[in-house]
Design brief:
heterotrimer; A mainly alpha; B alpha/beta; C alpha/beta; A: mainly alpha; Fumarate Reductase Iron-sulfur Protein, Chain B, domain 2; 2 domains; 12 helices; about 60% helix; C: alpha/beta; Rossmann fold; FAD/NAD(P)-binding domain; 5-stranded parallel beta sheet; globular
């Protein structure tokens, strides 16, 4: 295991804290494990949320950003409401998702592809588009599972629960201007 | 009382039954809903995985579009509710974020001052603003004999604890009791259904769904009542797949709480979106509720 | 004749000198403030050399006033006053100004800090010229002491004082003394039987000729000050005449009304409507719980009265208010248990076999509701596996930030009792194992040897939702085993929650009556956390035991003894010097309007009906100045805080505020208020 210098240690942790609202609460982590114990996906994670925070504190950037933890997170917020030090664990996981995606550090997971497909539709139409997800994401990333979804998809369609066409909002230009500006501001740092 | 209304993408299509029943029930209870004109998707959990500032700005557009006369915004979908509330809350608590989001909104000619709008969930509005007496008053077909398992999901009760207890919520339990149903108190009523996991990792997702269905079944619930489109989709839409994966034989109808309210109020099941669920609910309701007969439109 | 003022500016090492140019302040003061004849700076004024500087200058330069610019008066006012007194100058002609905490430690700008220090020195110098010599008053210390709370800390304090020959009033609100220690089974790490080591002390107190015990009583009102407190005690109606009762217990035996005992049995057992809390209760006199007694609620029964051989039952008995006078008060009111229903995911109150630490103590106790058997709520099933969860309500910002001090040891104790009495397995789920005191770590090692299991992880939830066959019908503890990095689900039959110790619900209310404060967490504030843990900021009021902060029995006993020693010291000294900084009413000017009477927060003003004037009770006056400000006739003066002194101080602060930039004048001629007042009478 590579040892990190003191400067490296602080940089990664500071980065995570800076990008997470109330992230400074992370400094109070006692490593009690309430988050890891509460997580419904805890058994599926190589590293529990608690372990991730310990690794962040130790400056282990690579290991953290390539962990599968973030992709197993279901955003149930149990960790956040139960943490005795009020650490916003779920939001820290979101920060790690963003960093992992931005630097392409993730391994063996389709979650980033799902996120990208979803948000592309929002950017384009102002609304999400489930059928588009089914085709754009499933067929491309995981064709076998797409096939298995066939019967269910058909049932949904016949009950009027799935539209084959996307809906576009009227002022899509306005939304796109906002999105464009937000990205610009974000890139400023 | 008038509220701004944010249906969210799911209610337009996948969760049409939710939207239909919300409108029917709101109408009967005197809740006036004014849909935000030209609202956009809240980004669900996906946008926050990409870019926090953009995600927040995308949500904030909706808050900015609320009619200035209206102070309360109701969102039936749990994810939409949390996103809207979180955005308002974070913008209020973090001046830096507030400034940046408003700078982005300005590019679209919009502005939102945090705290202007109070974000509510539909259950909360019915339980707190309308209240027990008014709800009971509208019940024409008490659901006596029907064992209902209230399922809260995650994002309405967590992380913001002001509406209900995040570990052991009771608002829907109470509401169902007002409707005359037999409320099943089972231990996993606020456990996670897996959210979007069904799209990412089926084994993980299916296990989470199985746990919920199993518990409701163990406690002999006739049906499960929920308050989130994702939960409904996972428990209902994927019930067949879960059965196939685990070799189980679950046959539990999953309906929205507003749908079951509508039944108790004697409204037309069709107008409440019944029939859209994959595991048929009406037959169970007919069989279990004492003296039930499908009502003509009120 | 002009005064001769000496100014001393302390460096305090670099604490002051690091931010303030002390030499400059001293030089400036000497050159610019009128009547200053000596102005020095020195490294450590509080040192003996520093004090000698002052004493020498008083003798040699004939100083009539002294100003010391240094740290807080809390620390060294006495030091400098003593130095002046030693050199023959009245100690109240010495004024300190705090340029450390109020300037150096809160500034980041050297120049601004130096300017502020100058202003403060000028203020003190102007003021001190108007100060007058005063003599502290002597108050005799009443040798009687009030101890509030009959738990182990209170009992220890009581015995130490009583054995020293001083009278003690002990007030306890439960029907018997003993406190929480009477509920425990064994005590760690010695595994002594708790009642066996406690009851001899209880007995001694109950019989001690120097102790007057008031049980089932509460402190109603406190007035006065150190040496002479007046306390009103509410003796609640037991409805049993203490003098007639022999403690035979027939009334309890025959009483037909059984209720759940929420207090002593922690809800695990029953008592009668007329009851003594436990067999070794001191006093043995029972109490009628009128909320549950059939006679009081429905007007029927009276069996106790019929069977009592000495006619000791008195349904008409009323609460009584008794007044006592004491010289000192020791507060030893202990703690209450955290309500575990505030953490729903542990299932307390919902899942039957989840117990609190206190409930488990009662279960283990041989005189308890299960006769000492460790069984489930059904009263008979023996658990095969028991989980003990640490830190329930402690170390948690949403409930109590602090660590409750005793739970790790108590958890080990429980583990031992389980392993000793049953064949069950026992697990401890902890964040840290805290075993700091004598023989505690060895006790931990003992439990490791005995085979107790330890999992490092705070339990996430306790549930009955089974996922696997071997979880069916059991309680499942879900936790991350942090040392393994694995989420684990461990099926158990019984869960024990190590609930936090919290301050009593009415701790703050009692504190207000006594004039002592509570910390953010609700524990009573000691005078100094390191060096003075049993005194409070209110002279004559001391704290001992868990009410000052969660602690174990040895620490509580030590504090009880320490508080007793302090009080004994004061009683032996016989008198206490009261600061003469009090208000005085000029009877010539007083019109008898009595506005001041009700304004006094210390009830220190009485009204003389004959003369139709008000009068300050010197011993009770704290010198707050409320009456001084309120009196419409300006008939009241506050010693050491006269209008001239205050106005002079303001003049000093504003030394550079004059338009022509002239230095401060001797007399505050520009201050309007002083012109309309008569000459200072203090």
């Amino acid at each position: 295991m590579a040892t990190a210098t003191a400067a490296e240690n602080n940089t990664f942790r500071n980065e995570v804290i800076a990008q997470t609202p109330n992230g400074h609460r992370m400094l109070h982590c006692l490593q009690c494990g309430t988050c890891g114990g509460s997580c419904p996906s805890g058994a599926d994670m190589e590293l529990t949320p608690r372990a991730l925070i310990a690794l962040i504190n130790a400056g282990q950037r690579d290991r953290v950003l390539s962990a599968n933890t973030m992709w197993a997170c279901v955003s149930c917020y149990y960790c956040t409401v139960r943490c005795p030090q009020e650490i916003p664990v779920t939001d820290i996981i979101y920060t790690l998702k963003r960093l992992s995606i931005a630097e392409r550090r993730y391994k063996d997971t389709d979650a980033p592809a799902l996120a990208k497909t979803f948000t592309d539709y929002v950017d384009k139409y102002g609304r999400s588009f489930e059928f588009g997800l089914a085709t754009g994401y499933h067929l491309l990333s995981r064709p076998l599972s797409a096939l298995k979804m066939g019967p269910m998809g058909f049932s949904m369609f016949t009950r009027g629960r799935m539209s084959l066409l996307p809906t576009k909002i009227r002022n899509i230009d306005q939304l796109q201007a906002i999105i464009h500006k937000a990205r610009e501001i974000g890139a400023r740092r | 009382m008038k509220y701004a209304y944010y249906p969210g993408c799911s209610l337009e299509c996948n969760a049409a039954a939710y939207d239909m029943s919300v409108r029917e029930v709101a109408d009967l209870l005197g809740i006036r809903l004014q849909e935000i004109d030209d609202w956009n998707c809240c980004g669900a959990t996906e946008y926050f995985s990409q870019d926090e500032l953009t995600a927040t700005a995308v949500i904030a557009r909706n808050l900015a579009l609320v009619d200035p006369q209206l102070k309360q915004l109701v969102a039936p979908c749990a994810a939409c509710y949390l996103n809207l509330k979180k955005t308002d809350r974070l913008m209020g608590e973090h001046a830096d974020l507030n400034q940046k989001v408003n700078e982005a909104l300005a590019a679209g000619g919009l502005h939102y001052r945090p705290g202007t709008v109070t974000v509510r969930h539909m259950l909360d509005v019915i339980c707190d603003d309308i209240g027990e007496a008014a709800v009971r008053d509208k019940v024409v077909k008490p659901l006596t004999g029907l064992r209902v398992a209230p399922y809260y999901g995650c994002q309405v009760v967590r992380p913001y604890p002001e509406n209900d207890n995040p570990e052991y919520p009771i608002k829907m339990d109470n509401l169902l009791a007002w409707l005359g149903a037999e409320v099943v108190d089972y231990p996993v009523k606020a456990h996670c259904c897996g959210g979007h996991m069904t799209q990412i990792s089926e084994p993980q997702a299916f296990e989470l769904i199985r746990r919920l269905l199993q518990s409701a079944q163990d406690y002999e619930a006739d049906l499960i009542v929920c308050m989130c489109p994702m939960c409904q989709l996972n428990l209902d839409g994927y019930q067949g797949r879960v059965n196939g994966y685990f070799n189980t034989e679950f046959k539990l109808p999953i309906v929205y709480f507003t749908q079951i309210m509508g039944i108790a109020f004697g409204l037309d099941p069709k107008k409440l979106g019944f029939g859209k669920e994959l595991v048929a609910a009406l037959p169970v309701i007919r069989a279990k509720v004492n003296g039930f007969a499908p009502q003509a439109a009120r | 004749m002009a005064e001769k003022v000496g100014i001393y500016v302390c460096h305090c090492g670099s604490n002051i000198a690091g931010m303030i140019d002390v030499e400059e302040v001293a030089r400036w003061a000497g050159q610019n403030i009128k009547d200053v004849v000596v102005s020095r700076d020195y490294k450590f004024m509080c040192s003996s050399l520093g004090q000698k500087l002052i004493e020498d200058d008083i003798r040699q330069e004939g100083l009539t006033r002294v100003v010391v610019a240094a740290c807080s008066p809390h620390l060294h006012e006495k030091t400098f006053r003593r130095a002046c007194q030693n050199a023959g100058l009245n100690q109240y002609l010495c004024q300190m100004t705090n340029i450390r905490e109020h300037v150096s430690w809160v500034s980041t700008d050297r120049q601004a800090a130096t300017e502020k220090a100058k202003a403060m020195v000028a203020a003190a110098a102007e003021r001190v010229k108007y100060q007058r010599p005063l003599e502290p008053a002597e108050v005799k210390v009443n040798p009687a002491t009030l101890v509030i709370g009959g738990g182990i800390a209170g009992l220890q304090a009581t015995l130490e004082l009583a054995d020293a020959g001083y009278p003690v009033y002990l007030v306890e609100r439960e029907p018997s003394i003993g406190g929480h220690m009477a509920q425990f089974d064994k005590t760690f790490p010695t595994l002594d039987c708790s009642a066996c080591i406690l009851t001899p002390k209880m007995s001694e107190v109950g019989q001690h000729e120097k102790v007057k015990m008031f049980t089932y009583a509460e402190v109603e009102e406190v007035s006065g000050s150190v040496g002479c407190f007046k306390v009103k005690i509410r003796q609640k109606a037991r409805h049993v005449i203490y003098e007639k009762c022999t403690g035979c217990g027939i009334c309890v035996e025959k009483c037909p009304r059984k209720v759940i005992d929420d207090v002593f049995e922690a809800g695990m057992g029953y008592r009668k409507a007329i009851y003594t809390p436990f067999p070794q209760a001191v006093p043995r006199t029972p109490v009628i719980d009128t909320a549950n007694c059939i006679w009081f609620t429905r007007g029927k029964c009276q069996v106790c009265s019929k069977v009592c051989p000495t006619q000791a039952i008195d349904y008409d008995q009323q609460d009584e208010i008794l007044e006592i006078e004491v010289g000192n008060i020791i507060v030893a009111t202990g703690w209450k248990l955290f309500d575990c229903r505030r953490i729903p995911q542990y299932g307390y109150g919902r899942l039957a076999n989840v117990f609190t630490n206190l409930e488990f103590e009662r279960m283990c106790n041989a005189a308890g509701p299960t006769g000492g058997k460790i069984v489930l709520r059904d009263g008979k099933t023996e658990p095969q596996r028991i989980a003990i969860i640490h830190c329930v309500g402690s170390r948690d910002v949403r409930h109590n930030q602090y660590c409750s001090n005793v739970c790790c040891m108590a958890a080990l104790k429980f583990g031992h009792l389980v392993l000793e009495k049953t064949k069950a397995e026992v697990y401890s789920f902890y964040i840290d194992m805290r075993t700091p005191m004598k023989d505690y770590e060895e006790f931990y090692q003992r439990l490791l040897e005995e085979g107790m299991h330890f999992v490092r992880g705070k339990v996430a939830e306790v549930t009955d939702a089974a996922r696997l066959p071997d979880e069916q019908g059991r309680l499942i503890v879900q936790v991350e085993d942090t040392l393994l990095g694995l989420q684990r689900r461990i099926p158990v039959d019984m869960v024990i929650l190590m609930a936090a110790l919290e301050p009593q619900a009415d701790a703050k209310e009692l504190g207000l009556k006594l004039g002592i404060s509570c910390s953010m967490a609700g524990w009573y504030t000691e005078r100094h956390p390191k060096l003075d843990p049993v005194a409070t900021m209110t002279d004559g009021v001391f704290v001992a035991g868990a009410c000052q902060g969660p602690k174990d029995i040895p620490a509580a006993v030590a504090q009880g003894a320490a508080a007793a020693a302090r009080v004994a010291g004061m009683i032996t000294a016989g008198k206490v010097m009261i600061e003469p900084i009090i208000a005085t009413i000029d009877e010539q000017k007083c019109s008898g309007c009595r506005i001041c009477n009700n304004l006094c927060p210390y009830n220190a003003i009485e009204y003389d009906e004959e003369k139709a004037v008000s009068r300050v009770i010197a011993a009770m006056c704290k010198g707050c100045g409320t009456c001084v400000a309120a009196c419409p006739a300006n008939a009241i003066t506050g010693a050491h805080f006269s209008n001239e002194q205050i106005a002079a101080e303001l003049e000093g602060i504003l030394w550079d505020a004059k338009p022509d930039g002239q230095p401060a004048q001797a007399a505050p001629v520009d201050v309007e208020i002083s012109r309309t007042l008569p000459a200072a009478t203090t």
